[in-house]
Design a protein that fits this description.
alpha+beta; globular
Length: 94
Amino acid sequence: MLDAAHIRPVAEGGSHRLDNGLLLRSDVHTLFDRGYITVTREHRVRISRRLKADFDNGEHYYQLEGSALWIPRRAEVQPRGEFLEWHADTVFKR
């Protein structure tokens, strides 16, 4: 149940490129798109405090906080830092 997720959606100026994508579990993909989860430039997961505030649940997602993502070895297909920063600054609910 894995999904290819755009870091910066095409509708927001992103493109269909490997460095603009993450392979995420489908539920995590949904939360990423809605801003409850982001990924840092260091490829670490961050979970928004708003997840609990908005839905009064999500405790098992907080266990992912700080987890490192598996990243491809080839630099040209790794998630681009500027796209990750855009997501954290624009989409992530602080």
